[in-house]
Amino acid sequence: MASIKLTVNYLYQLQGNEKKPAHAVARVYVGDTLSATEEITGMTEEAVSKYLHHSLPEGQTVRVEWDSAISAAEVHMCPCCHAEE
After folding, report:
1. Does pTM top 0.90 for this prediction?
2. Which residue among 30, 40, 50, 75 has the highest number of C-beta atoms inside a 10 angstrom radius?
3. pLDDT higher than threshold 80 for residue 42
4. How far apart are CA 31 and CA 72, in angstroms?
């Protein structure tokens, strides 16, 4: 049985200057086949690993796709001090 080492290097959500727990979903593929779906919730600033096992042929490309709470918004900055207005 083949194994995959899934490592989360850090997980948290910034709210202002404060770090809060976050939620993410990882889909792990071996070749083009979805091998595992892992839900990760919490907060870590250090790498955390988990071993996943599969019965697909070894030597295929392993890749991961992440869904997480990511947002983007336009902000207006003061031209002199660069603070958010």
Report:
1. no
2. 30
3. yes
4. 32
